[in-house]
Design goal:
about 250 residues; alpha/beta; Rossmann fold; 2 domains; 8 helices; 7 strands; binds S-adenosylmethionine
């Protein structure tokens, strides 16, 4: 039996039970091994499909913007994996579109009792031991399956994201970000990362916040409010996500 890790959810009891049935169906799939990977759509929930559509929507916005993609708050790495596939589909020869993921891989380091309202605690949203090594194998698979596979075009950086980001930027001052995906949920690292990326974004860069205007995780909105204010840029929303919001730098 796998360990359960604490995450916040808003699903009803019926939704949870229904998903449990789907999970059992997946675990007992009669689909032969050689057909499973190409039939994962059988098991995708509406939420999972929405996430894919949202990631696709934002990826399309950076196709003509120079720069790399960074996600802050990777967890199991589904977004990084999707970005790998979108890069292969839309710009297979753009070996300069590096994808970089920052995470502690140990969950929240701390929460600010005032700004994050204490809905979570340190250690929430951790992953299983050594997961980052497993995720690297998944990312390696995607690179091998796609053009220019001899050039590694992704990086996973473990540790406190703002600390690691500042280090990365001092070692690579030429960095331009075309897409920033902020999904650490909590205030302090989001604010510090937002401050650190200034000077490394350009007109057309897209900055996504996974949770805006959301009382269970107020931290990302407070970080945005303090660093840029809420009225400096238009905050777009997507039909595929009730919580996420994004800014296109103009
Ligand atoms: C909600 S999860 C990310 C989910 C992921 N983006 C997705 O869509 O599946 C939040 C992540 O932020 C990470 N995180 C929180 N605080 C962090 C910090 N100070 N530095 C790096 N990562 C952090 C946690 O470890 C966790 O994996």
């Amino acid at each position: 039996m796998k360990k359960t890790i604490k995450i916040s959810g808003r699903s009803s009891k019926e939704e949870i039970e229904n998903r449990q049935r789907l999970l059992e169906l997946l675990k007992n799939t009669p689909i032969p091994d050689n057909e499973i990977l190409n039939n994962m759509g059988v098991y995708l929930t509406r939420n999972a499909v929405s996430r894919i559509l949202f990631m696709h929507e934002i990826y399309r916005k950076i196709l003509d913007v120079s720069g790399m993609i960074a996600e802050f708050g990777v967890r199991w790495g589904q977004n990084l994996s999707l970005f790998e596939s979108f890069r292969a589909l839309y710009e297979p020869y753009n070996y300069n579109r590096k994808i970089i993921g920052f995470d502690t891989f140990e969950g929240f380091l701390s929460v600010d009792l005032e700004k994050d309202k204490g809905f979570s605690k340190a250690g929430d949203y951790s992953v299983t031991e050594g997961y980052e090594k497993y995720l690297m194998q998944i990312m390696d698979y995607h690179e091998r399956d796609n053009p220019i596979s001899h050039i590694k075009k992704y990086e996973l950086i473990k540790g406190d994201a703002p600390t690691e980001l500042k280090k990365y930027l001092s070692e690579n001052p030429e960095t331009i970000f075309a897409l920033i995906y902020l999904d650490m949920d909590v205030y302090r690292p989001t604010k510090d990362c937002l401050e650190a990326i200034s000077g490394h974004i350009t007109k057309g860069s897209v900055i996504v916040f996974d949770e805006l205007n959301f009382h269970l995780f107020p931290g990302e909105t407070l970080a945005l409010k303090e660093v840029w204010g809420l009225d400096k840029y238009r905050i777009y929303r997507s039909a595929h996500s009730p919580l996420a919001g994004y800014i296109v730098i103009e």
